[in-house]
Design goal:
This protein is of the alpha/beta class. The chain is built from 14 helices and seven strands. The chain is globular and about 65 Å long. The protein binds NADP nicotinamide-adenine-dinucleotide phosphate (NAP). The site of NADP nicotinamide-adenine-dinucleotide phosphate has 27 residues, from helix 3.
């Protein structure tokens, strides 16, 4: 065989999108979850019973509405120290007051505080993480809950230059998780819980075009949302692999189900009306918070993560809306792409390629963002 024909045959064509079968299977999972989530989760109580959590410190992003609000409230009412990481700090303070008033008859003093973070600004994420790490206290659970799905909206970019779904749903939570590793080590055994979505099954990440600007794919908010959720699963899988068992930090992605929250606020009015017409199928925020609360508190979760790690499973743990482990999408198993997503993400969030290793060794790392903070 001539050298030119052998080099041609050795060229592996880069995957440009999901295959048809993967795509159909992905949509099947989405529709299945929508139609049968209530039956799948019929064994669960609502609210999910939680043990006393007085020894737990949790940071939860985006908890002034929806799933995050319910998660924060229930963790706080079970005794946890809850840090509401939000951009609307006034709304968060009002919520604490309301929850406290509801509890005052039972004499329970909630241990909740508010810290500001705007995930559309990576400077803001660095500032948040620096402020938290400076306390030198433990962090037991980081819940990356905040997210956006601006359905039907035009493509928008953050001040950092990244497509907004990718920034809010993946890049900013990835930066937060990385920068909080020192606090998570202090809180070990600890967990990073990423509120992901069944929609990642129809996602595809082009690591050369994370902003979807090359024209190879037409941008729609569905493309933005699903790619960001898949990117989060892929990044989490590599992070879980890079964290040695001794570090005691477990990374879990969860699907909350299809939940009636503000996430639908950008949906066309007709679709919002549809949401209101089918309450049977759609979870309330309290029902939608169960998988996150389970992933954050259940003692079986670290055991499950350890089992996947020992088996060198290519994907991190994924907990479904029924609080049972499930398999992430076929594309999420593509280890070569997950490694590229890891490298590309670290580059985009301004961290060195060996950031995880350095942080685990207790070394300081420089982030390109947050340098000019006063
Ligand atoms: N609802 C569903 O059916 C569903 C299904 C699958 C997955 N999820 C996921 O569940 C998570 C929670 O969503 P939700 O349904 O509860 O929707 P939601 O009610 O809209 O809550 C989203 C939260 O994220 C916050 N947020 C948005 N942009 C932010 C930013 N730049 N910086 C800081 N916080 C920001 C919002 O705060 P503001 O009020 O300040 O905007 C809000 O508190 C998201 O990750 C979503 O993708 C939801």
């Amino acid at each position: 065989m001539s050298s030119s024909s052998s080099s041609t045959s050795n060229v592996i064509k880069e995957k440009q999108r999901l295959g048809w079968i993967e795509w159909f299977r992905g949509w099947f999972y989405v529709v299945y979850e929508m139609l049968f989530q209530r039956i799948m989760a019929s064994h669960l109580q609502n609210p999910l019973p939680l043990p006393p959590l007085n020894d737990l410190t949790c940071i939860i992003t985006g908890c002034t509405s929806g799933i995050g609000l319910e998660t924060a409230r229930q963790l706080a009412e079970s005794g946890a120290h809850v840090v509401m990481a939000v951009r609307k700090t006034k709304a968060a303070h009002e919520l604490i007051q309301k929850w406290q008033n509801e509890q005052s008859g039972m004499g329970l003093l909630l241990n909740v505080e508010v810290m500001e973070v705007d995930l559309l600004s990576l400077n803001s994420v660095v500032k948040f993480a620096e402020a938290w790490n400076a306390r030198l206290g433990p962090l037991h659970v980081l819940i990356n809950n905040a997210g956006i799905f601006s359905l039907g909206e035009p493509q928008r970019f953050s001040k950092d230059g990244y497509e907004e779904h990718m920034q809010v749903n993946h890049l900013a939570p990835a930066l937060l998780s990385m920068l909080l590793i020192p606090s998570l080590i202090r809180g070990s055994p600890s967990r990073i819980v990423n509120v992901n979505s069944v929609m990642h099954y129809v996602g595809f990440v082009d690591t050369e075009d994370m902003n979807v600007v090359s024209g190879k794919r037409k941008f729609t908010s569905l493309v933005g949302y699903t790619s960001s959720k898949l990117a989060q699963v892929m990044f989490s899988s590599i992070l879980q692999k890079r964290l040695p068992a001794e570090a005691g930090i477990n990374v879990v992605c969860v699907s909350p189900g299809i939940v009636h929250t503000n996430v639908a606020r950008d949906l066309p009015k007709i679709v919002q009306a549809g949401y209101n017409l089918i309450p049977y199928f759609i979870f309330s925020p309290q029902e939608g918070s169960r998988s996150t609360l389970f992933a954050a508190t259940d003692p079986q979760v670290p055991e499950y993560c350890a089992m996947l790690k020992a088996d060198e499973w290519p994907v991190c743990s994924f907990i479904s809306n029924d609080c049972r482990p499930t398999n992430a999408s076929e594309e999420a198993h593509n280890l070569a792409t997950s490694n590229k997503v890891w490298e590309k993400t670290l580059n985009l969030i301004g961290l060195p390629a060996d950031a995880a290793e350095k942080l685990l060794e207790g070394e300081e790392i420089q982030c390109r963002y947050g340098q000019s903070l006063e």
